[in-house]
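Researcher: Please translate sequence to structure tokens.
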Amino acid sequence: MIEQIRAKAQQYFPDVQAIRHHIHAHPELSFKEYQTSAFVAAKLAEWGIQHTTGVADTGIVAIIEGKNPGKKCIAVRCELDALPIQEANDTSYRSQNDNVMHACGHDVHTSCLLGAVRILNDLKHEWEGTIKFIIQPGEEKHPGGASLMIKAGALENPKPEAILALHVYPHLPVGTVGFRAGQYMASADEIYITIHGKGGHAALPHQTIDPIAIAAQVIVGLQQVIARKGNPLIPSVLTFGSIQGGFATNVIPDKVEILGTFRTMNEDWRYQAHKWIKDFTEQTCAAYGAKADVEIPVGYPSLFNDPELTGKAEGWAREYIGADNVKTLDLRMAAEDFSFYTLQAPGCFFRIGTNDGAGHFTAPVHNAHFDIDENAMKVGMGMMSWLAVNALK
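Model: Translation complete:
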């Protein structure tokens, strides 16, 4: 079946490339992927694939049954949403929507999944079981489309025994794939702090409660809290990306707003850190006579690749593209809402190389210059298909 899958990946590559160009040129932000969802649904209908639309509003669940469909079910997932970035590339398929761009490769993931749909549908008399395709909204935005798809029943009727997903990786060349068994990516929680002080004249600070000075103490102090209260063997990142307050050189404002993110790879420490962040901020502000509002909405859990499934997937990948082309991935402090699925079923989240090996297509994801060597999609749809049929055994 390897040769059949390779041949069909080559056969369908022009169609998948055209699909990617259309999706890339018409990006939509998280939970607003109405046109993208309609486009994908139209393709599934054209190919005669059983599917349900409107799952978590813009999500889609498609199903292909092979021989003996009740034997086992596995799932494959992709995402529909883009990012609020103005594209800087000059290509025929560049974004036509201002300040919206597929800078994280979700257009590639969706195109590869649709290629795999065609391959697996053509070969459905060659494999046993059921494959469920989860096409989700909002991976880039809290609370994560994966969590909403699960709540909407995407993992039920039938319930998959395993779930797979791929992601572009500009640090690897086309023709390679990367895996990491066990812990792979961090949890991600947003932090919203508002410090309420007392504004006044900058020349009379003793008559005010200066929220800017207090904010400086909070930001510096919280770095020490995380560094000194956390186990140094547990990776953690606390970053503040926005501090807003004030409007003039000679005015002390009434309040300051701080936005940040906390990421770690240990769920117990994650929630301990939430308490330390909240307590330290409130107590520091109180010491200066200010008041703090601290909100830390719980975001994505850390991503754990099932060791058994991932070990098998690495072996299947070696069969498909050769042992030298299968790499071990480093831990990443970035986050992925695929982690919600891995709390429900064993999961394997892997990467496909997307640079051309000659110094092109190396811009990182979430960058205005991100793009791929599209030959990567031959590997992506083929690998997705090959891993899926093997996961059914």
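Researcher: Any highlights?
Model: The CA atoms of residues 71 and 276 lie 48 Å apart.
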